[in-house]
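Data availability excerpt. The first of two example chains:
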Amino acid sequence: MSSSHQSPTLIIQISLLLIFLTFLPSSYGNSACVSKIYGEGHIVCVCNATYCDDMDPVTLQPQGGILVYTSNREGARLQVGSSVFQHNRYFHPNPIAAMIPGTRNTKTQQNPLNPEVKIQVTRVKMPQKILGYGGAFTDATGMNLRNLDPATQEKLIRSYYGPDGIGYTLGRIPMGGCDFSPRNYTYADSPGDLNLSLFKLQPEDYLYKIPYLRLAHRLSPKKIRLFGSPWTAPPWMKTNNDYIGMGLLRPEYYQVWANYFVKFLESYEAEGFPLWGVTTQNEPFDGLIPMFPFNCMGWLPENQRDWIKTNLGPTLRKSKFSDLKVIILDENTAALPRYPQEILSDKEAAQYVWGIGIHWYSTDITKHDPILQTHQMFPETHILGTEACAGFLPWQREKVIMGSWERGEAYAEDILQGIRNHVVGWTDWNLALNTEGGPNWAKFAADSAIIVNKTSGEFYKQPMFYALAHVAKFFLPESHVLQIQLTYSDIKNSTEIISAGVQRPDGSIALMLLNTNEVDVDVTILDEHRGSSYILLPRRTMKTLIYI
């Protein structure tokens, strides 16, 4: 090409560069993480009354630019960079790319020894829309929050639900006590109260749940969808007359239990919190296990089917809560597809059901195939992740592992695989626990995305928090899930990465990439409307890309 043709091209490229630099965030990133190191690759971010890392508003770059957020095992937490698309898909080097920080979009910048993967982003929208992401307002969460001063409490809730937080829009509320409570209780513990005239919220609601629900609603710029989940009916309604152990709801109390749901909904609405949905029972298999050690109630699928179609469904439909979303199962994926199949195959019961709630604790065994199978059987029924946490299983000896990147990766992988298998949202368990993974009356500790240190008056954001942020902040409610196709350079020796993408309500694209391997991967993003861009995905790294 002659010099007479090079000069105008160079002028155009420099002009585009100036435009891109103009639209980058002024600080080129979010406020910094104050890191605390617990060992190699074990890093948390420290927050207190005066400081907490937060997120700047997402400022989209002009067409052709890509905003890139990166977190990794080495300690990066939502660090902001950028890349650009080539104007075609033939990978011509672009001199602009080399001049923008964090950019690797030319072939010459790649390591020839790195595995390569091409990610084809199509604008073909799946029927699935994102509902949202969130966590649970348990008694344990509230108890830990009360150990912090008011300014630090607000920073913690703001980290999840505030405008400079990670964009939570879901909240789960235990309907009474659960294992992460200081004691066993329900709202109608007086035996024989068939009319539920003595039904009332308990001190735990007013001390540990409602104040922080109120704070989240005050801080959130978005609508928060709240759903309730029962752990057990009052003991006098159950076959074993106990909060724990093997016990089912007595059939003569089926209608009383349906009325209990309405009472709960009325009580929380009176406090200013109209609920969006309810699950029918937390982990209905637990109450089928002899000597099960904490709050539970067993439901065989055929019994729950009959209760929904005869009692719960009609009762809700005749009440002021006729639009409430009813979510069945609320159990591990090992129960798929048989449990929901028993209910949804009955049209009388299915008419009342909005969705299927799943927990992640068995996905290491079942993988995500049962979720896809269930979707294929009942494509009109939504699938929502209703509980997950790390460190809870009996064989996980370390309940809280400060700064565990592996647990952050596990969160990210489960969320992304869920999206790829028609899951519309994901709900973490406790919003905050203490350094021992509690309190839990039954002494079953667990890990949490945020850990509270009562002694120092601060809290720690774990890698799990940032894994959630990489999705919740960018995969907005009402986003359409897109078809994403990954092609590896060497089928036999490929290094697998995990990816999912959506088209957001404003038309922009969000794409998350996860590399859990010990090698870097060179990624080529191919978008039929934008061209191509090279992205280095280093080992043990997650990235979220946003572009118009």
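And the second chain:
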Amino acid sequence: MGGKNMINSEDGSDLKPLIDSDKVEDDMCGCGQSAFCSPKRGLHRYVMLIFMCFLSFGSYFCYDNPAALQSTIQRIMDVDTEQFELLYSLYSWPNVALSILGGFLLDRVFGIRWGAIIFASIIFVGQIIFALGAQFNSFLIMEIGRFVFGLGGENLAVAQNAYAVSWFKGRELNMAFGLQLSFARMGSTVNMLTLESTYNAVSFDKDYQRLAFALFTGVMYCLFSLFCAFVLSYFDKRRSRILNLDATNTGEVVRLRDIKDFPLSLWLLFIICVTYYVAIFPFISLGTVFFVDKFEMSSSSAHFVNSLVYLISLGASFLLGIMTDKTGLNLFWVIISIFGTLVAHGMLAFTWITPYASMVLMGVMYSLLACALWPMVALVVPEHQLGTAYGLMQAIQNLGLAIISMIAGIIVDTKGYLVLEVFFCANLCVALFCTVVLYIVDSGKGGLLNFTAKEREAHLESLSNVSSAPKENTVETYTRSPRITPRTASELRGRYLSTIGVYPTPDHDGLGRLLPLSCPHQLK
């Protein structure tokens, strides 16, 4: 009896426990048995979710530090808009490569726990260098700081999502992702609303010293995120020991040779992604001065309006994620998102309607697109290519942001903000055209990307009925069986953001649900 928690010893003569019961008993006595401390209880997981949400708070607060102080930085450092936009390009350039290599580093080199600590430390150091650049009145040092900061930003988000998959896979995963995104946008919003006030609240002999003080507030947020990384590492290791989980690797490899097999649908998703987001983030980085110049707003009002995209997404991301899960129709929602964002930019460019309306619309559309676009990747490529697909998608997005940020700065310096808005509208038109083409291509293949939730569920059930078969559920089977590729769209969708997802082993039930003994937690 008790074979459920036993395994054959090397000589095959007896059985030994899979886990050390003495250690588990130490952890599960006293407070360890309470709902607050037991990893088997929901309350403990929700407490850990708070630390997961704050893991990237410092990164998102600091990412838009330049946008919150655009005019101040340009005046003190005596740089034009093109040079100012380098602070964003230098963040994106390292992530062109790290979007592909980051998963490998987290999986095979550092592991999730140490990876989160290392990348949080890199962000912490990068923000220190950025602030010291202001302290020494050196824009070059500030640029170096932003480059170092970029080395950690994207991969910390990957580690954050990996923790979410490990602790909340199943019905609660969308909720966890939604809350993480909301907290991330909270960091961006707090930055937009408070950083200039912090600069104005202090008095030093030199303005660049006031700038440095404001930027050092970001260092404190990054330090708190690093603290959260240590907390998560400890409790994730404790949870793995108590529940006998293995979180060391996903078994997934990014294979550049897979690129030649990518379908047209995936390349269209890449184009939609980059042409949409280059009309959002570079605009926000320059938005404060735009609102002051065109709408004659005060600096504080301009900062608030510019933060509305992030502020709206705080609640909208979670609610719209539920809506898209309930309705399906991903392509329809992507078309609506792009068209709505195009209308918002058009209002800003060609009318004097209050920018509050335009930015609220842009915030809702931005949140809706994120909920509808990214999961579609898991429906158009085979499971074994998902790591490469998501890595390449993020790399292309960062490449686009790096290039467009510089182009945006040049346009503002030479042509002005009206031409910049026309440029953003042109990018959104390309995104809208590619989405229509994707709709046509997908319709010719059965229309899976635009199925309703009920249609998709019926489709997945029919596929699972064909593909499912009884399988032996033992530890020995798990270790010896060859890996197979899941065939159903449910299994693919279960790999949402698969660069950090759970890898289904041969022992699954045909619906993407992992069986407890044969598939311990494996993360990237």
